[in-house]
């Protein structure tokens, strides 16, 4: 990743963080809030593959952790796994379609919320696995499905494709080849509900 890419990635993470804190934390469905930072991790994996996706997830997770009252590093670990996981599965996506970006945003965000809750439970935050988890998963998944068509192009601008000779996924004209992918490479729970802001 070049210096310009790092700068653009930082700009994207800070922008999404500000949108999260100023706007999305005010949107509530039965006290569950959207979480756009887990979508940043998913977009990184979708656009640039597992290694860059993991890096983007780590950065987005650290930014999120700065404003949460849960153990520091929990979001960073969960989002790293989301970015890496989406990047690994992108190689199996044969032909991207218009619905790939929102579907990936929703599924990856839902997985991110569940991973976050499971990791939280392992470090003594057992309330994260409570009855509200399904609601939070649903709210984050739906919100991020709607936001994904905006965030994925931003991520494409920031870091580009991580695979040589291959168009980035998530674009309507992009294509993916499993062989090319193999040869070239050898969400968050709602603030104030399950995990509260500091």
Descriptive overview:
The chain has 198 residues and is mainly α. The chain has a single domain (3-185), classed as Arp2/3 complex 21 kDa subunit ARPC3. The protein contains six helices and no strands. The chain has helices spanning 3-22, 36-65, 74-90, 100-122, 133-159, 178-185. The model is unreliable at 162-193 (pLDDT under 50).
Into which percent range does the helicity of residues fall?
A: 55-70%
In round numbers, the mean pLDDT is 81
Major beta-sheet overview = none
Low-confidence spans: pLDDT under 50, at least 5 residues?
Answer: 162-193
Q: Which topology does CATH recognise?
A: Arp2/3 complex 21 kDa subunit ARPC3
Q: How many discrete structural domains?
A: 1
Shape: globular
Q: Determine Rg (CA atoms, Å).
A: 16 Å
Number of helices: 6
| Beta-strand residue fraction | under 5%
Q: Which oligomeric form is depicted?
A: single chain
CATH class: Mainly Alpha
CATH second-level architecture:
Orthogonal Bundle
Straight-line distance between termini: 32 Å
Written as H for each helix and E for each strand, in order along the chain, the element string is HHHHHH
* Category from helices, strands and their pairing: mainly alpha
Total E-strand runs:
0
